[in-house]
Amino acid sequence: MDESTKQDFIKAGRISAEVLEYGKSLIKKGNSLLEATELIEKKIFELGGKPAFPVQISCDDIAAHFCAVEDDATILENQVVCLDLGVHVNGAIGDTAYTIDLSGKYSDLVKAAQKALEEALKIVAVGTELREIGKTIQDTVKSYGFNPVRNLSGHGLGLYDIHTSPTLPNFDNGDKTKLTKDMTFAIEPFATTGSGVVGEKGHSTVFMVEHPKPVRSPITREVLKEIASYDGLPFAERWLQRKFGAKSTFALRELNQFGIIHQFPPLVETSKGIVAQAEHSILIDEDGEVVVSTKI
Ligand code: CO
Predict the structure, then answer these.
(1) What are phi and psi of 125, to 5 degrees?
(2) What CA–CA distance (Å, rounded) separates 10 from 282?
(3) Is 41 assigned a catalytic role?
(4) Taking the CB of residue 46, how many other CB atoms lie within 10 A of it?
(5) Of 65, 88, 279, 280, which one is the catalytic site residue?
(6) Of 60, 188, 254, 269, which is the active-site residue?
(7) What is the separation of C-alpha 258 from the centre of its chain, rounded to a whole number of angstroms?
(8) How many other β-carbons are positioned within 10 Å of the β-carbon of residue 184?
(9) d(CA 109, CA 89)
(10) What order do you get walking across the sheet with 147-148 strand by strand?
(11) Which of 8, 65, 132, 155 is flagged as catalytic?
(12) Integer Cα distance of 105 and 252 in angstroms
């Protein structure tokens, strides 16, 4: 990694951290989920970044990929709220998440995810095996009496690529691959009161271009041009609704039919367990020094 890319990763991380702090202040009883989402996205731009993916505010048994649409009417009340956001600077990404328990009943669950992240960060170094990260997360979450979500994981962060190798498991999956110098990745423990498996459920509001190809319809073409400005990163249905109104629904349907875009439906805990998440982005530089870029 060259020096300017490294600085971009550090800058993206610092902006994500600041935006997360701001975002936490908006997760309050009585606030609108949609308004919070939009204010957080606005903050990313204000601080000189761009969203690496749409801001996601997933509640209760929804572990990830919930992104408000234009007419979302959710008011934050007693939910357990996972706020997950990503910022990019010239394609270099900071990805971070935090959970706020508005119910007053799940503070231990939030602690379990947070502590699992802290313990995992302690062992991050050149030569650490991926399975050791997973085992640390699993043991910590279990020590609180909860389960890690096994089919969600941390991930490598590439330039303009939010999910690349390696996969950093949330349990001991036996993977002896080692962390190396010059690596950028996110560690992302999820703790749940349920059995620890998520499945896709409900309407997708987050998409990404998968197989670009030309389209005939002028509306879809116009929408596709807008999508190109998101640099191949995931985007929200809401961003298109805001710009193109109802026409965006037609265009998205067509892009889906042609296999041009990939959908990310909400990921819900299959036994209806409540889910908490914590996440930081990490950079191991060419000298093997570990930088947690999203930590203030
Ligand atoms: Co992530």
Answers:
(1) -165, 160
(2) 9
(3) no
(4) 12
(5) 279
(6) 188
(7) 26
(8) 26
(9) 33
(10) 147-148, 190-192, 275-277
(11) 155
(12) 39
Could you tell me the CA-to-CA distances from 79 to 58, 100, 101, 150, 196 in Å, in that order?
9, 8, 7, 23, 19
Instruction: Give the end-to-end CA distance of the chain in Å, rounded to a whole number.
Output: 23
CA of 209 to the centre of ligand 1 (A): 18
Could you tell me where the beta strands, DSSP code E, fall in 169-230?
183-187, 190-192, 198-200, 206-209
Distance 145 CA to ligand 1 centre (A): 24
Q: What are phi and psi of 292, to 5 degrees?
A: -90, 100
Structure token pair of residue 220 = 């879809």
42-74, pLDDT tens digit by residue? Answer: 999 999 999 999 999 999 999 999 999 999 999
Long-range contact pairs involving 120-125 (C-beta distance under 8 Å, separation at least 24): 120/187, 120/189, 121/187, 121/280, 121/282, 121/292, 124/179, 124/187, 124/282, 124/284, 124/290, 125/179, 125/284, 125/288, 125/290
User: pLDDT tens, 85-129?
Assistant: 999 999 999 999 999 999 999 999 999 999 999 999 999 999 999
Structure tokens belonging to residue 175: 């993977």
